[in-house]
Amino acid sequence: MSIVNLGTKKAQLEKVLADYGTLLVGFSGGVDSTLLIAVAREVLGEKAVAATFASPLQPRREIQAAIDMAQKLDVAHSIVTTEAITPRELISNSRNRCYICKKHIAEKLLDIAHELGIDTIAHGANLDDLDDFRPGFQAAREAGMVAPLMDAGFTKADIRALSKEMGLETWDKPAMACLATRIPYDTPITPETLNKIDQAETAVLSEGFSTCRVRCHDACARIELPPPELDRMLEKSCRDSIVGLLRKIGFLHVAVDLEGYGQGRMNRS
After folding, report:
1. Residue 261 Cα distances to 75, 137, 232, angstroms
2. Cβ proximity of 163 and 173 under 8 Å
3. Which of 15, 124, 190, 242 is a plausible cystine mate for 33, CB 3.0–4.6 Å?
4. In terms of pTM, does the model score above 0.85?
5. Which residues, other chains included, contact 168 with Cβ-Cβ below 8 Å and sequence gap of 6+?
6. Do 86 and 56 touch, CB atoms closer than 8 A?
7. Crossing angle (nearest 10°) for helices 156-165 and 31-44
8. Which pLDDT tens digit goes with each residue over 183-197?
């Protein structure tokens, strides 16, 4: 995308954001919400605030990344912390899981917004998100959440291009989703399983891979990696290291998905 087009896209986003007097952004620290809060900070100043939901469903490394990024952007930042899997309806891991979770998060964000006297809450959805199964969108709409990036016509490629132009270090950050997306639907979600997945992904990433998903199938860990990085996983030294680490974490079997990493893989069912 040319610099001229990037300028036009940013102007469109700024116009959307200018219509909000105050804004609370649901902030994960990922590429989408980072661009959203960064531009909102430019447009609305201190009237743009970020909030991050921290629970066993979020990788610990991502929560810390969100805290660090909010500090770098000089944005007021609230952390909503819970040590339990809430609401409890999430534990059954139904196909409506994302709706239940998003509704709960939206309610918490509304509480923060009310306390701070903020009129509008936003999330970082973009046009590409419409291509996948996203029941959380319904919950967001019901809660009155807005999607400025979507309203301004941003795709993921647009977001990455503008983020790079603005010097945001998240411009090439891999996509991330909550840890529950690593567990097949209708398999109960437990803190122990989430912790195993979080540790396993951290272990794989420590070997230098750019991103990964560790899908949990009972005692089997199915690792998804970007296709160009699959060959390195199969090198004996790397393979032995990761198998050893994941066995220590509690997985009895370690497998590599030959298709490589793909968003929404668990939605095939």
Report:
1. 33, 23, 14
2. no
3. 124
4. yes
5. 34, 35, 38
6. no
7. 60
8. 999 999 999 999 999
